[in-house]
Amino acid sequence: MRAIRARTTAGAAVLIAVLGLVTPTTASAATAGSAGTFSATTEQQIAALQAIKKSQSAGEAKVDSSLLVEQKLRASRFSAAAVPRLQTGANVSASGTVVVDIRVDKVSDNFINSVKAAGGGIRAVSQRTGNVRAELPLAAVTTLAQRGDVRQIQVADQARTAREPNAPAAPAVKPETKEAKAARIGAALQQATQAKAKAQAAGVQTGTVTSEGDKAEGADIARQQYGVTGVGVKACALSDGVDSLAVSQAKGELPASVDVPAGQQGSGDEGTAMLEIIHDLAPGAALGFATAFTSDASFADNIRNLRFQSHCDVIVDDVIYFTESPFQDGLIAQAVNDVTADGALYFSSAGNEGSVADGTAAHWEGDFADSGKSVGKFAGTAHNFAGAGGTQIFEPISDASSAGVPVTLFWSDPLGASSNDYDLYLLDAAGNVVSFSQNNQTGTQDPYERLNTPIFGGTGLRLAVVKFSGQARYLSLSALGGRFSNSADGLKAYNTPGVTVGHSAARQAFSVAAVPAAAAFPRPLEPGDPANPAGPFPGSFSAASKVERFSSDGPRRMFYQADGTPITPGNVTATGGEVRQKPEIAAADGVSTSVGGFSPFFGTSAAAPHAGAVAALVLSGNPGLSPADVRSALVNTAVDIEAPGVDNVSGAGVILADRALAYTGASPQPLVQAQQPTVSVAGGSGYLEPGDTAKVTLPVTNNGDGAAVSTSVVLISPTPGVTIAPRAKSYGTISQGQTGVNDFTVTVPATQQLGIPVVLDARVTFAGSLSPTTAEFPLSVGQPSPVATDFAYAGAPVAIPDNSPLGASVPIVVSGVGPASKVTLSVDGTTCSDTAGSTTVGLDHTYVGDLVGTLTSPSGAKVTVFQRNGSGGNNLCQVVFADSAAQPFSSVLAGNAPFTGTWRPTAKFTSLATSSVDGTWTFSVVDAAGGDTGFVRAVSLHINGFVHPTQASGRPVRGPV
Prior knowledge:
The protein is α+β, with helices and mostly antiparallel strands.
């Protein structure tokens, strides 16, 4: 049986909500009908469902059909006897809530408040796309839909990664609780930390796990021959999460610095495994990560954030959302278009949905063929899959690949403007409707329907597509992770190439197929399948290499530009649109990582980071190389595998790093960067005062791959009146990994105000394409006051909403300080305990590891105080966050609760000490996971100013200086 590979973004798995098992039909049971007709049972049940569709109110017409029918069933406004085997697919919690995606004209405060007033909780907000993910009482869904600014309410879209599990998943296994996960990861971190300390004490180097793709892709040879490691390139990944990031860092598998935006570490470890692959092949590249699993709109936002805020050069993902259209770039693909237009290279998994060539797919696309078979008493007609070859209105699903399969139907209307209405039904062999999707398409909706097969699968399941109203369109029907195969009762399976869909099909994205690097995938995809191919490790890929049998095929036909403009106006049939070559390239999978559950790591999820890492090496050896030139290098040097020439399973072939670098040429680049200077003041006061002349010692370090020749530094200051001598100095040649040092003389004007820093701008030049580099260093002016002034939040406790990006915020008003020399934050409390709901602690919460805390200054500068630390421990009480603390708060464990003492924040507070700190500060806490609650009760700021010269006379001076 094909493994159930869907991961959901709506919390608990939607698929597991439905535990019905479709049983085989007995000899005396009814049947679904002949290949060309519906049985009376089927017609009656579809007619009952269509009656709901025909009688909907204006508000109900905006609601996902599964939610609407579930609501009517629970309210006894629709008889379950009319559809005895139906599973609506609505995942209703024990408390009667559902997670939904709401599309609105504008995300306003009024709308957010209406969700709260309906008893709902906000899970994700995208202002850019007008999408809100919320958890609502099922009974409130249709009421909310009556708002004029609400366009549509759907079951929360789901996503899956393109990892192919080594063993079939057990659908009835209870998911790991976050408490159990935290304990597992905490134990692994402790073990890794102890092993590292033991190795360091013994003076031995700890071994690391290296992907077999490093050799199979020729990356090890490329690094050796060309001396490039990824220096100067930032490579970032999007996936489920990086739960074990700290574990991999402690093991030495990942560098100490990985850029993860606040609250975006997600849940899961596929991201950690992907980062390890990138680091194995391109160890000099900077790394970053953001989750793709909050919602589809949040995924799109994070793609843009990785480029435009985190400045990633190479972006890799392994995620597909089920709502992603095969015919038009949707909101995720549009984000990919934005970042590639800005120069980023984007690599995305082709998917693990199989291919026609290997007989492993469940995908059919083509023009709607009217069977002439009406459905029920309404004006619907069934699609004829056989076309000119006969009449068959069913598409059979393989019994062995029928468990928990999401099935999607799209047609060639533009997104948000479909006026042709198609519906999708899943039937059992007896003709019962098992699952369905019959949303309205009246001109403002997407051309999309989706259902799920039963969690345990079934025997004799088959799909039917019904045109409820409108014109014939080009259709795309996919059972993601399933297989269309001939049924025992004579139905023929119809498959066509092109199951690769979504943002990996964006024009400038690289869609990446998978080729095994080492041992073969360890199980047949279905019983009786031929053997899976093996890889060449310890050798490299060759023309004999084969694509994984599960790797998705192309090409991808597109009918619309991203804005909905037809590519071929008037022709949205099989002869229209644009055909994109997808996938473009193939790369390694089936490789080792140190991450639990991801060794070996199979699937196009593993292939995409290998491809991205090869691109990072190409860029590292050729800074400034255009995306078109990188594409040319990868495609033109790929080893041709499978069918001769470019094919629809491997694209141009499997890429090799050494061949790509031979094509572009490459040279190891130096990367010299200025480091924090030290200041020596004449007279030894230790403090830079107005009118002082000081020696500034400025080190520069070569963190690149090559020697830095002709290195020099120009040091200037934008601060009025500051003089620097000399302006420039030569540092000569700085070898790789070495540091050069020079002294400059800086004079501060006597008129410089205490507390206003002198800013030094260092510009480092050297012979190399990464030259110049720049850095800014503020030098504090004045003696920091040893006395801190305290400012406390004086309001009532503020509730922290569970699993909501809105969070809780409290203001702290600061006055009479002026410039600050030091900022410290404390979470206070009178009596500390780990008691749930304690009112005597500064912040009570039953799972501190859910929380992300930030501090924002009056100028708008924001830093992260803590980020998902402390796992299952309860409560913060008498905690001081200070830059000078010996230990980071990121090192706390659940056993440390209640959390007390002094800790370093995630980001330094120095950036918050501006020219004036007077005004309103904001301390915010966001709960990033479900199931726990708490309050912000007591927090304070402690701010040190500067010593005024009159203090020398013994008169204390407080306030502005």
